[in-house]
Specification:
It contains eight helices and eight strands, in the order H-E-H-E-E-E-H-E-E-H-E-H-H-E-H-H. The chain is α/β, with parallel strands linked by helices and about 290 residues long. It has two domains: about 130 residues, Chitobiase/beta-hexosaminidase domain 2-like (Chitobiase, domain 2, 2-Layer Sandwich); about 120 residues, TIM Barrel, CATH 3.20.20.80. The strands form two sheets. The protein has a five-stranded mixed β-barrel with strand order 1-2-4-3-5. The protein has a three-stranded parallel β-sheet with strand order 6-7-8, with helices on one face. Helix 2 packs parallel to helix 3. The radius of gyration is 26 Å and the shape is elongated.
């Protein structure tokens, strides 16, 4: 009797689960992160397909837009369908002002996306190149791995709720490979975040400087970032709409300036600083 009741209870729960699952409408909005401020879908049960000759185009002369088109052309996967009246063949990007070259906290990065019913062209419109970046990221999330968009007659209007959307990392205490930093920049752009705050000092100063080369002269090549690496890193961030905020903290994280006591007559306030440094360096040398 108990076994029979257990089976009936299980079947009842299964029926409820299947009913609720069928009632949940899966459409393009469920694929977007962060969720845009306004998403309108005229026919959520329809689908649109990118043709195998799908292209992203723009008349903007911004290098930010050009670089983004190249990146997202590789990211967005078209279908194998030939161009037709029902496929989307082109994504056009219109930018009102292409002159901004550096992201700022005050910049207008709003954008709109339109996928009109029966139109073979989708459209992104933004005020600045960095708004176009966010529009491209959203559009890439709309398209599944088979080149299909769940829904038709789609209009998206979006802008960040907060002007500062950032992440802090401490590479002063523990160095992170430049490859990891590059992937962090990519992740920030995919999440529409715009600030990376980097703490660069601690037991060592992690950035090569021509003014004080002795700060990194005692480190292994993998324990600091060269000038060329930083230049490439900052450029990568710029093209993805990410602002880099470097931090060299004094006096709290001044241990890394110890080499200047030998070359620039730097002195610390506490008299036993030198002894403390040698003890610290002896213990933690393998971890710096």
């Amino acid at each position: 009797m108990k076994n029979m009741l257990s089976v009936k209870a299980f079947l009842l729960l299964l029926c409820i689960f299947l009913y609720v699952s069928s009632a949940i409408q899966v459409n393009v909005k469920s694929q977007l992160f962060p969720v845009p401020q306004n998403v309108s879908i005229t026919t959520p049960t329809s689908t649109r397909t990118l043709s195998k000759n799908f292209m992203i185009k723009s008349t903007s002369n911004s290098d930010v837009v050009t670089d983004a088109i190249n990146r997202y052309t590789a990211i967005i996967q078209p279908s194998t369908a030939s161009p037709s009246a029902s496929t989307i063949n082109v994504l056009n990007i219109a930018v009102d002002d292409s002159t901004p070259t550096m992201p700022t906290l005050e910049m207008d990065v709003s954008y709109t996306i339109n996928v009109d019913i029966d139109s073979t062209t989708a459209a992104i419109h933004s005020k600045t190149p960095f708004g176009a970046l966010y529009g491209l990221e959203t559009f890439s999330q709309m398209v599944d791995s088979g080149g299909v968009i769940l829904g038709d007659g789609i209009t998206i209007q979006d802008a960040p709720a907060f002007r500062h959307r950032g992440l802090t990392i401490d590479v002063g205490r523990r160095i992170a490979p430049i490859e990891l930093l590059n992937s962090i920049i990519d992740g920030l752009s995919y999440s529409k975040m715009n600030v990376l705050h980097m703490s660069l000092s601690g037991p060592a100063v992690r950035v090569e400087t021509e003014t004080f080369p002795e700060l990194t002269a005692w480190l292994e090549p993998t324990q600091f970032y060269t000038k060329a690496q930083i230049q490439q890193f900052v450029e990568r961030a710029r093209l993805r709409g990410v602002i880099i905020i470097p931090e060299i903290d004094i006096p709290a994280h001044a241990s890394g300036f110890f080499p200047l006591t030998e070359t620039k007559a730097l002195s610390f306030c506490d008299a036993d600083r030198k002894l403390k440094w040698f003890i610290f360096n002896d213990i933690f040398a393998n971890y710096i």
